[in-house]
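Changelog note: in this version the structure field was regenerated for every chain. One regenerated record is shown below for reference.
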Amino acid sequence: MQRASIVSAASVLISTSASAAFVGYSVTATTIPSGGQNLVRYQLFANFSGATDRALNVFNLSLAAGSTSAALCGFNNPDDNWSPPVSPASTTDSFLMWGNTSTPISISPSINGDCLVTGLGWTSSNPPSSPPPTPSFQLAQFVLASSDAVTRVFSLKIAYTSGIGAPVQFGETTFALPAPGALAVLGLAGLTRRSRR
């Protein structure tokens, strides 16, 4: 199984703060054999600079410049449900999440099938009164067939604080899910960091 980390080169637009900073999204890509076909699993993470930073929600998913509407569809989603799986996380299913798959989430607008929609947002549907620090946590898992030829670049806004009782701040940047075949090209160009398990 090969794993690659993909770094977003987009700039981050954030509110100023003395201690909190949303530093961007990161994506890891892993090739997964499944039933005679190869899939690529992308895991999306939000990253912060402070130990007490807390994400509140992500919202307003949109296509970044140059992406076509085809980028919204084609995800492997056999149960047609974008909520986190009830059983242990499937490596071959696409879903949205809030830190881990045991946290129930609220998704707006509601979505089903293999497509995302513009304007999409999600958060924990049962936020704890004192959430643990989240310097980096997972927001989603996207799975595509290795034969998929569409590069997906999305913009996503995030609301966060530097700790309980701190003012809400906002950030926005892009993340990319390169076409699975393009991952090999990116690796040759030195744009990804690969490691073998």
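Spot check on this record: The longest helix spans residues 182-189. Residues 7-18, 184-197 have pLDDT under 50 and may be disordered.
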